Amino acid sequence: MRITTDTIIGKLVADDYRTAPVFKRYGIDFCCNGNRTIADACPEAETDQLLRDLEGATAEAGAAGMDYKSWPLDLLADYIEKKHHRYVDTRLVEISPFLEKIVRVHGGHHPELAEVEQLFKESAGELTVHMKKEEFMLFPYIRKMVNAQKEGIPVQAPFGSVQNPVQAMMHDHDGEGERFRRIAELTGHYTPPEDACNTYRVTLSLLKEFEEDLHLHIHLENNILFPGAVALEETLASA
C-alpha cells in the first residue's frame, strides 16, 4: 500500500486499522474528519515523519487487524449495535456517578471538572437518542437492503434515501467529536493531577477508554458502514 500526502485519512484507516494509533499520536481525527487528505490534516513540518510512521505501521508483521471492510453490511451493523452501542450504554451509567463524585470532592481545586461533567451529560443524552435512531430506523433499513439484494426484490426507504439519515448521523458524530476534544483538552488528555484520588484516576481512565471506543465506533460508521449503505442503495436503484 503506497501512502502519500494525497491519501484520504478515513479510507486509509478503513483499509488498515493499524494506522489509527499513528494518527491518534499526531492528534489527527480519523473518524469525524476522516474525509481529509494527509496534507490537509498534518502540518507540513510533520508530514514526512508521519508518512514514515504510517509506512512502518502497515509494514509490521502480522494481520492488519479486523478487516471490517470485507464484512457484509448487515453483519457490520449488528456488530456495531451489539459491541459499541452496548458499551456506550454500560459506560454512561458507570462514568456519570464517578464524575459527580470527583466534581463534589475535587471541584474546588479543579473547577474544569464541572465543565467535563456537563459535557459528558450532554454526550450521554445525545448518544442515547442517536443510537436509538440507528437501531430503529437506519440499521433495519440497511439490513432490508442487504436482503433485497440477495432476494432480488425491491425495497423503498421510508425516509426518501439512506443518505438522509446518514447525513444526520454524521452531523451527530461531529458534535461528539467536538465534545470529546474539549474533554481531552480540559483533562490534559486524561492526565491525573498530583492530588488525584483513586476515583479521580479511574474516572479519567474510563473517559479515555470511552473516547477511544467512540473513535472506532464512529470510524466504522462514517468510513465503512455509511458509504457502503449509500453505494448499495445506488446499486439497487440501478438494477
Please outline the helices and strands.
Elements (H helix, E strand, L loop, with lengths): L8 H7 L4 H6 L12 H4 L2 H16 L13 H34 L5 H40 L11 H24 L11 H41 L1
Helix pairs in contact: 1-8, 5-6, 5-8, 6-7, 6-8, 7-8
Question: Can you put this structure into words, describing what you see?
Answer:
- With 239 residues, this protein is an all-alpha fold.
- The protein has 2 domains: 9-59, no CATH class; 70-238, no CATH class.
- The chain is 72% helix and 0% strand.
- α1 crosses α8 and α5 (73-106) runs antiparallel to α6.
- The longest helix is centred in the C-terminal third of the chain and has 41 residues, at 198-238.
- The protein is globular and about 65 Å long.
- The model has no long low-confidence stretch (mean pLDDT 92).
Key phrases:
239 residues; 2 domains
Q: H/E series, N to C? A: HHHHHHHH
What's the number of extended β-strand segments? 0
* Helix content, binned percent: over 70%
Residue windows where pLDDT falls under 50 for at least 5 positions: none
Distance between the termini: 33 Å
Label the structural class.
mainly alpha
How much of the polypeptide forms β-strand, as a percent range? under 5%
Output the number of helix runs.
8
Average pLDDT, to the nearest integer? 92
- Rounded to the nearest angstrom, the radius of gyration is 20 Å
The biggest sheet, with number of strands, parallel, antiparallel or mixed sense and barrel status, is:
none
Indicate how many domains the architecture comprises: 2
**What is the global morphology?**
globular
